[in-house]
Protein backbone atom coordinates (compact mmCIF):
# COMPACT_ATOMS: atom_id res chain seq x y z
CA UNK A 1 0.00 0.00 0.00
CA UNK A 2 2.95 2.32 0.77
CA UNK A 3 3.78 2.21 -2.98
CA UNK A 4 0.60 4.24 -3.63
CA UNK A 5 1.33 6.81 -0.90
CA UNK A 6 2.58 9.62 -3.23
CA UNK A 7 -0.43 9.22 -5.56
CA UNK A 8 -2.96 9.08 -2.73
CA UNK A 9 -1.40 12.18 -1.14
CA UNK A 10 -1.53 14.00 -4.49
CA UNK A 11 -5.22 13.13 -4.91
CA UNK A 12 -5.92 14.22 -1.30
CA UNK A 13 -4.13 17.55 -1.81
CA UNK A 14 -5.80 18.15 -5.18
CA UNK A 15 -9.23 17.43 -3.70
CA UNK A 16 -8.42 19.70 -0.70
CA UNK A 17 -7.52 22.61 -2.99
CA UNK A 18 -10.57 22.00 -5.22
CA UNK A 19 -12.83 21.85 -2.16
CA UNK A 20 -11.52 25.14 -0.74
CA UNK A 21 -11.60 26.90 -4.12
CA UNK A 22 -15.18 25.78 -4.81
CA UNK A 23 -16.29 26.87 -1.32
CA UNK A 24 -14.65 30.30 -1.78
CA UNK A 25 -16.23 30.79 -5.24
CA UNK A 26 -19.68 29.71 -4.02
CA UNK A 27 -19.49 31.85 -0.89
CA UNK A 28 -18.28 34.99 -2.70
CA UNK A 29 -20.91 34.54 -5.43
CA UNK A 30 -23.61 34.13 -2.79
CA UNK A 31 -22.43 37.38 -1.18
CA UNK A 32 -22.66 39.04 -4.61
CA UNK A 33 -26.34 37.98 -4.77
CA UNK A 34 -25.90 35.24 -7.41
CA UNK A 35 -28.06 32.11 -7.32
CA UNK A 36 -25.82 29.41 -8.84
CA UNK A 37 -24.08 28.50 -5.53
CA UNK A 38 -27.31 26.85 -4.30
CA UNK A 39 -27.95 24.86 -7.51
CA UNK A 40 -28.28 21.10 -6.97
CA UNK A 41 -25.51 20.29 -9.49
CA UNK A 42 -23.04 22.55 -7.67
CA UNK A 43 -23.93 21.01 -4.30
CA UNK A 44 -23.44 17.49 -5.69
CA UNK A 45 -20.10 18.52 -7.18
CA UNK A 46 -19.07 19.80 -3.74
CA UNK A 47 -20.17 16.53 -2.03
CA UNK A 48 -18.26 14.49 -4.63
CA UNK A 49 -15.03 16.45 -4.14
CA UNK A 50 -15.36 16.14 -0.34
CA UNK A 51 -15.93 12.37 -0.66
CA UNK A 52 -12.67 12.04 -2.62
CA UNK A 53 -10.93 14.28 -0.06
CA UNK A 54 -12.09 12.21 2.91
CA UNK A 55 -11.44 8.86 1.21
CA UNK A 56 -7.85 9.96 0.52
CA UNK A 57 -7.55 11.19 4.12
CA UNK A 58 -8.68 7.81 5.50
CA UNK A 59 -6.25 5.95 3.23
CA UNK A 60 -3.34 8.16 4.30
CA UNK A 61 -4.35 7.63 7.92
CA UNK A 62 -4.13 3.84 7.58
CA UNK A 63 -0.89 3.85 5.55
CA UNK A 64 1.18 6.17 7.76
CA UNK A 65 2.74 5.13 11.10
CA UNK A 66 0.92 6.51 14.18
CA UNK A 67 4.15 8.18 15.36
CA UNK A 68 3.77 10.69 12.55
CA UNK A 69 0.85 12.28 14.37
CA UNK A 70 2.53 12.29 17.80
CA UNK A 71 2.69 16.10 18.16
CA UNK A 72 -1.11 16.36 17.77
CA UNK A 73 -1.17 18.10 14.35
CA UNK A 74 -3.87 15.80 12.97
CA UNK A 75 -6.17 16.40 15.97
CA UNK A 76 -5.67 20.19 15.59
CA UNK A 77 -6.37 19.87 11.86
CA UNK A 78 -9.64 18.00 12.51
CA UNK A 79 -10.74 20.61 15.10
CA UNK A 80 -10.28 23.39 12.51
CA UNK A 81 -11.91 21.21 9.85
CA UNK A 82 -15.03 20.74 12.01
CA UNK A 83 -15.10 24.53 12.65
CA UNK A 84 -14.71 25.18 8.88
CA UNK A 85 -17.62 22.86 8.02
CA UNK A 86 -19.91 24.18 10.80
CA UNK A 87 -19.19 27.86 10.03
CA UNK A 88 -19.48 27.16 6.28
CA UNK A 89 -22.94 25.60 6.77
CA UNK A 90 -23.98 28.57 8.94
CA UNK A 91 -22.78 31.00 6.22
CA UNK A 92 -25.02 29.32 3.62
CA UNK A 93 -28.23 29.52 5.70
CA UNK A 94 -30.83 31.37 3.56
CA UNK A 95 -32.08 33.56 6.43
CA UNK A 96 -28.62 35.07 7.10
CA UNK A 97 -28.10 38.86 6.74
CA UNK A 98 -25.39 40.13 4.37
CA UNK A 99 -22.95 41.36 7.05
CA UNK A 100 -23.31 38.18 9.19
CA UNK A 101 -22.81 36.03 6.08
CA UNK A 102 -19.66 37.99 5.13
CA UNK A 103 -18.21 37.53 8.66
CA UNK A 104 -18.98 33.80 8.59
CA UNK A 105 -17.44 33.37 5.12
CA UNK A 106 -14.21 35.08 6.23
CA UNK A 107 -14.12 32.96 9.43
CA UNK A 108 -14.68 29.73 7.45
CA UNK A 109 -11.93 30.64 4.95
CA UNK A 110 -9.50 31.41 7.80
CA UNK A 111 -10.28 27.98 9.33
CA UNK A 112 -9.67 26.34 5.93
CA UNK A 113 -6.32 28.13 5.57
CA UNK A 114 -5.35 26.94 9.03
CA UNK A 115 -6.31 23.32 8.13
CA UNK A 116 -4.02 23.64 5.12
CA UNK A 117 -1.22 25.28 7.11
CA UNK A 118 -1.35 22.61 9.83
CA UNK A 119 -1.19 19.86 7.18
CA UNK A 120 1.79 21.45 5.43
CA UNK A 121 3.69 22.22 8.62
CA UNK A 122 2.81 18.93 10.38
CA UNK A 123 2.41 21.14 13.44
CA UNK A 124 -0.73 22.10 15.41
CA UNK A 125 0.21 25.81 15.08
CA UNK A 126 0.06 25.72 11.28
CA UNK A 127 0.64 29.15 9.68
CA UNK A 128 0.94 30.68 13.19
CA UNK A 129 4.42 29.12 13.36
CA UNK A 130 5.57 31.92 11.03
CA UNK A 131 4.45 34.57 13.50
CA UNK A 132 6.66 33.02 16.18
CA UNK A 133 9.71 33.47 13.92
C1 LIG B 1 -10.36 20.65 4.23
C2 LIG B 1 -9.80 19.52 4.58
C3 LIG B 1 -8.37 19.14 4.37
C4 LIG B 1 -7.32 19.84 3.83
C5 LIG B 1 -7.33 21.26 3.24
C6 LIG B 1 -6.15 18.99 3.87
C7 LIG B 1 -4.90 19.32 3.39
C8 LIG B 1 -3.81 18.48 3.36
C9 LIG B 1 -2.53 18.77 2.76
C10 LIG B 1 -2.16 20.08 2.07
C11 LIG B 1 -1.73 17.69 2.96
C12 LIG B 1 -0.26 17.51 2.51
C13 LIG B 1 0.65 17.79 3.69
C14 LIG B 1 2.12 17.63 3.30
O1 LIG B 1 2.58 18.36 2.44
O2 LIG B 1 2.77 16.75 3.87
C15 LIG B 1 -2.49 16.71 3.69
C16 LIG B 1 -2.03 15.50 4.10
C17 LIG B 1 -2.70 14.66 4.96
N1 LIG B 1 -3.98 14.80 5.42
FE1 LIG B 1 -5.26 16.26 4.88
N2 LIG B 1 -6.50 17.79 4.47
C18 LIG B 1 -7.84 17.86 4.80
C19 LIG B 1 -8.58 16.88 5.45
C20 LIG B 1 -8.04 15.79 6.10
C21 LIG B 1 -8.73 14.91 7.00
C22 LIG B 1 -10.20 15.01 7.38
C23 LIG B 1 -7.81 13.99 7.44
C24 LIG B 1 -7.97 12.81 8.38
C25 LIG B 1 -8.95 12.55 9.17
C26 LIG B 1 -6.57 14.27 6.80
C27 LIG B 1 -5.43 13.54 6.94
C28 LIG B 1 -4.25 13.75 6.28
C29 LIG B 1 -3.09 12.91 6.37
C30 LIG B 1 -2.97 11.64 7.21
C31 LIG B 1 -2.11 13.46 5.54
C32 LIG B 1 -0.72 12.88 5.23
C33 LIG B 1 0.39 13.69 5.80
C34 LIG B 1 1.70 13.31 5.15
O3 LIG B 1 1.76 12.44 4.31
O4 LIG B 1 2.72 13.92 5.46
N3 LIG B 1 -6.74 15.38 5.99
N4 LIG B 1 -3.76 17.21 3.92
Would you summarize the structure shown here?
The chain is mainly alpha-helical. The chain has helices at 5-31, 40-63, 73-91, 98-121, 128-131.
What does this structure look like?
The chain has 133 residues and is mainly alpha-helical. It has two domains: 64 residues; 64 residues. It contains five helices and no strands. The mean pLDDT is 96. Protoporphyrin IX containing FE binds next to α1, α2, α3 and α4. The site of protoporphyrin IX containing FE has 17 residues, from α1, α2, α3 and α4.
Beta-strand percentage range = under 5%
The total domain count is 2
Structural class: mainly alpha
Q: What's the mean pLDDT score?
A: 96
- General form: globular
Unique ligands = protoporphyrin IX containing FE
- Put simply, the count of helices is 5
Record field, number of beta strands: 0
First and last CA, distance: 38 Å
Kindly provide the radius of gyration, computed on alpha-carbon positions and rounded to a whole number of angstroms.
Answer: 16 Å
What string gives the helices and strands in order?
A: HHHHH
Q: Which stretches are low in confidence, meaning pLDDT under 50 for 5 or more residues running?
A: none
The share of residues in helices is over 70%
